[in-house]
Amino acid sequence: MALAPPLSRELTAIRTALGRGLFGLVAGPDGPANRARIHGAPGERWFAEDRPIRQVHGDASMFVGGLRALLFQSLHPLAMAGVAEHSDYRGDPWGRLQRTSTFLAITTYGPALEAARAVDKVRGIHNRVRGVAPDGRAYAASDPHLLEWVHIAEVDSFLLAYQRYGSGHLDQQGRDDYVADTAVVAEALGVPAPPRTERELRERISAYRPELRGTAAARDAARFLLLTPPLPVLARAPYALVSATAVSMLPAWARLPLRLPYLPLTEATGIRLAGGTLVGGIRWAMTAGPDE
């Protein structure tokens, strides 16, 4: 019994260190200041505290959902061309992750005025991203059709990750409400008529399938994201599990173009169990109390 308090303090220290490390990875050096500003600033929000978008975007399942979204989005050749030619995802992958997570945090939890400013900033960046894909087609990041693909691939990934590995579970109404919540942000970004129910989301993804295929750039990005991201040695094994979990959430038809494995029996048992354990561990580390 005398050993219990020291062990408890050691465990608390480990939890705090892990939580800070994970938060720093996704939020960057300005993460604590941004979090205080986003959550503490007065003013109306786009979404009330009981909205599903807050529930989903605040869950540890976003770690695997985000990686799945990047892989899924890369299947559109024009969207991938824009990333390959205008994004420094190889030189600064964590910077891109941190900017994306900050945008999600601001639009989900921040004051309405700040959320609108964040959207305006992203739209300004999109207006400058244009070019010609390797297949000769012109692309523009501000194209509503490409914006919708990026949006629905992201929403599908976040929702699936939450339903499979989240701390709760959304019923049909909750899933529809989540899709409707995300449509508010999508419309602000320039998507004219984003899906507002889970059924509409599935229908839109099906409608895009004839346009999707694996390109050299998409396969190269998948190899980088899954196998060779810049990580310290101790983080490589957990990240490999994040990668396996993200890949296991892709439909079989989306894996072949990226040359990713499809192992249904292994994924339904070992990977799913390990993924749940991993996400639970991330959640445990990220929810340390303020005094910890």
TrEMBL record:
InterPro entries found in the cross-reference section: MPAB/Lcp_cat_dom (IPR018713)
ER-bound oxygenase mpaB/mpaB'/Rubber oxygenase catalytic domain location: 54-273
Top-level taxon: Bacteria
Pfam families: MPAB_Lcp_cat
PANTHER family referenced in this protein's UniProt entry, alphabetically: BLR2777 PROTEIN, ER-BOUND OXYGENASE MPAB_MPAB'_RUBBER OXYGENASE CATALYTIC DOMAIN-CONTAINING PROTEIN
Stated name of the protein: DUF2236 domain-containing protein
Organism: Mycolicibacterium komossense
